[in-house]
Write a structure and sequence with these properties.
three-stranded mixed β-sheet
Length: 219
């Protein structure tokens, strides 16, 4: 269906299966064009989404366009409660470990379009979920999220979503974001320890009135 629409618009395209073990992970060696359309084979998009994707490919100068599962008006048929909870957990995790996309409601959309030059190939090897790399390669990039209706094609979604969660942690490690958060937490913990130590010394050793000791330790 999608290929037929592209042919009708006379848009040349090349389909690459990123899950194929024979496919090398570096997209620079794979893609000769200027635009990438990522489609997760676990979802079947509605016909309206297919038409919108083709129209976006016909227009130059677009931003990153995604078709989100988590915005108002979107629907995923066959999505279980655990999948919904895990998808929202992934969104929160990405906001913590990938602050560049904290405003993106669905960091793992089933479909998105981006220019090849916006992808970041410096962060380790390209894996399975390119949107993170697309957005993290720019400090500021406009993401246009659209609503869509999808059907579940792969019944092993829970395992796939768990893999995505581990992938985010791996990305945080590769980009240094994980170390930054650990340092921030260590500084906060050390500050609490110092305050409690001062409070203990003032009240138990020097017998200073408790409220006065608390004011001094906070300062």
């Amino acid at each position: 269906m999608f290929k037929n629409k592209l042919k009708e618009k006379e848009i040349s395209f090349e389909i690459i299966n990123l899950n194929d073990p024979d496919v090398k992970v570096n997209l620079n060696n794979l893609v000769n064009g200027e635009t990438i359309v990522y489609m997760d084979a676990a979802y079947i998009p509605d016909l309206n989404i297919v038409n919108e994707v083709v129209e976006c490919l016909s227009v130059s100068g677009r931003s990153v366009v995604t078709w989100s599962r988590l915005i108002n008006g979107s629907k995923v048929e066959g999505w279980g409660i655990l999948n919904r909870l895990l998808a929202r957990l992934l969104r929160v995790t990405c906001r913590v470990f990938a602050p560049q996309i904290r405003d993106c409601k669905d960091p793992f959309p089933p479909i998105f379009i981006a220019d090849i030059k916006m992808l970041n190939f410096c962060v380790g090897n390209f894996k399975m979920w390119p949107l993170i790399y697309t957005v993290i390669s720019r400090e500021e990039v406009h993401i246009q999220e659209r609503r869509g209706i999808f059907k579940i094609h792969d019944r092993k979604m829970l395992r796939r979503d768990l893999f995505k969660l581990f992938h985010v942690f791996g990305l945080a490690r590769d980009t240094g974001e994980f170390n930054r958060i650990l340092k921030f937490a260590a500084v906060g913990a050390s500050g609490i320890f110092v305050n409690e130590l001062i409070l203990f010394l003032l009240t138990e050793v020097f017998k200073v009135f408790y409220l006065m000791s608390a004011m001094i330790s906070i300062e």
